[in-house]
Design goal:
heterodimer, A: mainly alpha, elongated, B: alpha/beta, six-stranded mixed beta sheet, four-stranded antiparallel beta sheet, 16 strands, about 40% helix
């Protein structure tokens, strides 16, 4: 471990961390936006869920590197390539949670909302989604954390992230770089996860603390 | 007023839930739909606010077919209370109660102040307003459920097994509160329950359902107990319907005897004289006018004649009934519990008014039952006349109009 390397490469490490954070968070948020309507439909129409879930599992089984390569003809060796691939993966993680969350709304609560005079859309937005929020945010946490971790693989097609430190460290037989990259990815993932937990607590003050 | 006209609900799998139901819920009254599970009572209730749509027939709310109205708008004018309250877990108590006013476009501040009024109305402390439902007991949640249903002051209230998920003590308290609220508010209430006791207690009218959605008998609860239409009804209302019917009969006309009552300051000699005068072997001893216990003639034998009765050990008296307020059921129960077979009548302040014997109670029961029967017979005759001659009834009315204007 060469501690001085860290001090002399501060700007590089900071830039790679920011890039990795971007590649972890943005796809998860886009994935959430896409997962919501699909999940809501799957929760509403029973027949729609099994095929959707199968499709998602198949996609999720694709190795990330294979997907990055598969997207090269369309998007080249760009950030967009990695963002799209990671969006697909986070969508796979978040969508089942949307379904579970919406389905976990107690029947009598849904029925009460209808009987009070809520229309279907208003009921969805003001009753069902808020009640599903803790489970959906749970899915988002997994999506963000796995996105931050998978982003480093993008380095293999030249998209910059903390993955750079692994490849560079390996090529130069310089383990310090590898350790720094590893620690930073874990710290980054933990920090994002804690922020999401805090966010969930803030938006669901009503939830029973367990 | 809510009217069911030949309402049938048949599900896609062919199950007949409700079969050509005709039912009328008079405005300002409580109609209880009672029956075993699968009898269509809940389906019938939910067809009123269109949570379920009927297959045939129609339901009129104040003369208007509910299916001609926008469902959301219709529902905002009908309060709805369900089992386990169904409160919104993510909203505070006050925001739960304010639900329908907010849907109706009230400002939040105004809706919340209305919510606080209702919290007081259902007997909950204002400090609960900002709590979340999971922080409340089951009984409190159910009260909030009632408050939420009443928030927009709807004329109609639908209650689907509202009190079945709470313990018996809380249930009785909630029932009492509903009766007290209804005495003030005069809502048109349709309440579904499987508990015949609850039906009899809460209903002005009771409709007892058979399996597969037909009504076996409907009418005043006292009538169901007095003259069950058939074995099914008799079986459902229970073997002790005779006793339960007594809770509809008042004690205002029950004759009371003052002779077997003696003050604790009197002596054993006074007591012996009293037992000889009444010819009854028991005396009720009172202290400051309130019942203290029963003393038998046997126990008086061999005692010092000058001794005060207060020094003589007495048998416990069970409980007394409040004359005029309590029913004959309470009077009979008091007589059964008394070793003397005499029910102790007290006034509102607990002062002894006298005692009533089994014979007197039996006579009062017979008189009340005869009254109830003749009132019911007169009403049935009037209904029949109204149905049989609607055209004939119009003729004299028509001919009176010019006379009145002349």
């Amino acid at each position: 471990m060469t501690w001085s390397w860290i001090g002399s490469n501060g700007p590089l490490i900071w830039q790679l961390t920011r890039e990795n954070m971007y590649l972890g968070i943005v796809p998860a948020l886009i994935g959430l936006v896409i997962a919501l309507p699909i999940g809501i439909m799957a929760a509403r129409w029973r027949w729609f869920y099994p095929p959707t879930l199968t499709a998602i599992n198949v996609i999720y089984a694709i190795p990330s590197l294979a997907l990055f390569i598969a997207l090269i003809p369309a998007f080249g060796l760009t950030d967009t390539n990695v963002v799209i691939a990671l969006t697909v993966f986070s969508l796979c993680v978040i969508m089942p949670n949307v379904v579970t969350g919406v389905r976990s709304v107690p029947d009598n609560v849904r029925q009460a909302a209808t009987a009070m005079g809520y229309g279907p859309l208003r009921r969805l937005v003001t009753v069902e989604l808020p009640l599903a929020a803790p489970v959906i945010i749970g899915g988002l946490r997994v999506g963000v954390v796995s996105g931050i971790s998978l982003a480093s693989v993008g380095q293999l097609i030249g998209v910059s992230s903390l993955g750079y430190l692994f490849i560079d460290g390996l090529q130069r037989s310089f383990p310090t770089e590898i350790y720094v990259g590893l620690v930073l990815i874990i710290v980054l993932a933990l920090a994002c996860d804690l922020i999401l937990v805090a966010f969930r607590r803030a938006v669901t003050p009503w939830a029973v603390r367990t | 007023m809510i009217t069911f006209e030949r309402v049938t609900k048949r599900y896609a799998d062919g199950t007949l839930a409700v079969d050509a139901l005709d039912l009328e819920v008079p405005a300002g009254q409580t109609m209880v739909l009672v029956g075993p599970s699968g009898c269509g009572k809940t389906t019938s209730l939910r067809m009123i606010n269109r949570l379920i749509e009927p297959s045939e027939g129609r339901i009129l709310l104040d003369g208007k077919d509910v299916r001609q109205q926008d469902p959301s708008r219709l529902r905002r004018g009908i309060g709805y209370v369900i089992q386990q309250a169904g409160l919104f877990p993510h909203r505070t108590v006050q925001d739960n109660i304010a639900t329908v006013p907010v849907l109706n476009g009230w400002r939040r501040a105004r809706a919340r102040s209305r919510a606080r009024e209702l919290l007081a109305l259902v007997g909950l402390d204002a400090s609960l307003a900002t709590r979340y439902p999971h922080q409340l007991s089951g009984g409190q949640q159910q009260r909030v459920g009632v408050a939420r249903a009443l928030a927009a002051d709807p004329p109609v209230l639908l209650m689907d097994e509202p009190f079945s998920a709470v313990d018996p003590v809380v249930r009785t308290a909630l029932q009492d509160q509903l009766l007290a609220l209804q005495a003030d508010l005069h809502k048109t209430i349709v309440l579904v329950t499987h508990d015949i006791e609850e039906a009899i207690r809460l209903g002005d009218q009771v409709a007892l359902f058979r399996p597969h959605g037909t009504v076996a008998q409907s009418g005043a609860p006292e009538r169901l107990l007095a003259v069950p239409a058939d074995d099914y009804v008799a079986g459902f209302v229970g073997f002790d319907r005779g006793i339960r019917r007594l809770s509809f009969f008042g004690t205002g006309d029950l004759p009371l005897e003052a002779a077997p009552v003696i003050d604790a300051a009197a002596t054993v000699a006074d007591a012996r004289a009293a037992t000889q005068a009444t010819g009854r072997p028991w005396l009720l001893v009172t202290a400051d006018g309130q019942p203290a216990g029963w003393i038998s003639a046997q126990r008086l034998a061999g005692l010092d004649l000058a001794a005060p009765l207060a020094s003589v050990p007495a048998d416990p008296f069970g409980h007394a009934f409040t004359a005029g307020t309590d029913t004959l059921r309470a009077a009979l129960d008091a007589a059964v519990l008394s070793p003397a077979g005499l029910g102790i009548a007290v006034d509102d302040g607990g002062q002894v008014l006298g005692v009533a014997s089994f014979d007197q109670i039996r006579a009062a029961i017979a008189a009340s039952a005869a009254d109830a029967d003749s009132v019911a017979a007169a009403r049935a005759a009037a209904d029949q006349a109204e149905q049989a001659t609607p055209a004939a009834a119009e003729v004299p009315q028509g001919s009176e109009v010019p006379q009145a204007s002349a």
